[in-house]
Amino acid sequence: MDNAHKYTHQGGCTIRIRVRKHHAEIHLEDTGSGMSAAVLPKATRRFVRGDEGEGVSPKGSGLGLAIAQKIVQAHRAKLILSSVPGQGTHVTVIFRRIHREHGISPRKS
Predict the structure, then answer these.
(1) Can you tell me the distance from the alpha carbon of 88 to that of 108, in angstroms, rounded to the nearest whole number?
(2) What is the pLDDT of residues 41-88, one digit of tens each?
(3) Which of 41, 45, 87, 94 makes a 20 to 30 Å CA pair with 78?
(4) Which of 7, 12, 89 is nearest to 53 (CA)?
(5) Which helix (H) or strand (E) holds 64?
């Protein structure tokens, strides 16, 4: 959410939550600067940042999406990124639904 706000100078950010039969989805879309095709596959690695042409903030550390990815993985969920430079980024997080009434419980570490 911080990145969406930071890199969206015009337009806005939208959050949608969908609950499906077997999973729940969180969608975050912005109309910000987007990420290039070269940066997108590496965006969840630590210290990876776009270039200045993509509106990269001089204050960013390149850790936000890396931390988000670790949190998502800890919940056995999936993070999906898509982006178009100059048009914005769409982040989707998909969580498996856990049905306790069927004896399924979260994984223990």
Answers:
(1) 37
(2) 999 999 888 765 555 555 678 898 999 999 999 999 999 999 999 899
(3) 87
(4) 7
(5) helix 64-74
Range 61-65 contact pairs with CB under 8 angstroms and sequence separation of 24 or more: 64/2, 64/3, 65/3
Reduced to 3 states, what is the DSSP secondary structure of residue 52? helix
Q: What is the pLDDT of residues 22-31, one digit of tens each?
A: 999 999 999 9
Rounded CA gap, 105 and 103, in Å?
A: 6
35/72 Cα distance (integer angstroms):
21
SS3 85: coil
- Enter the tokens of residue 59: 């204050």
CA distance 40 to 96: 24
